[in-house]
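Lab notebook page, bench 4
Experiment: in silico fold of construct C2
Operator: M.H.
Input chain length: 157 residues
Purpose: comparison with the prior construct
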Amino acid sequence: MGILTRSFERAIVKKCKRHLTEYINKLAGMDSAELATILAIATSFRHELDDEGLNVMYPVICVHNDPTASLKVNQLIKEMQDQRRFPEAAATMVWLHTLRAGQHLELRLLCRKMWKELERGMAQVDQGAMQYMKMTGNMLDISESDLFPDGMEPEPK
């Protein structure tokens, strides 16, 4: 790997760290009901991604099999933002940051902190899904919403 490639890689990781830190700070400011809604939407979107061949529950394997996985998720977020679907975009960022942490070991600890914040909403995911349905009329698939992505558990094994 050349010096330019390493410098570019370091700049990318630095930017990803900054974005992930900002996201964690936003999650830290939310109460458990708000986190439950984010987690409900993120869980449902995870199932959609899985149907499209991106198993984000195994982020290291996912980015190994498809190095463009995080770029694809980032593009989906931009489309959601353009469509003014801000809750969906915010929830999908969970998977963008998780995939980036699967790709860059330097992001792993921060990603675990993100999942620690999201864990505060796990007990209320049913209510979060109901809140989303009241707002949009759309049902969410919240099955297995209490699982953490492989390697991103708040407390390492």
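Observations: Residues 3-136 form one domain. Helices lie at 3-28, 32-51, 59-65, 69-82, 86-103, 108-119, 125-136.
Next step: discuss at group meeting.
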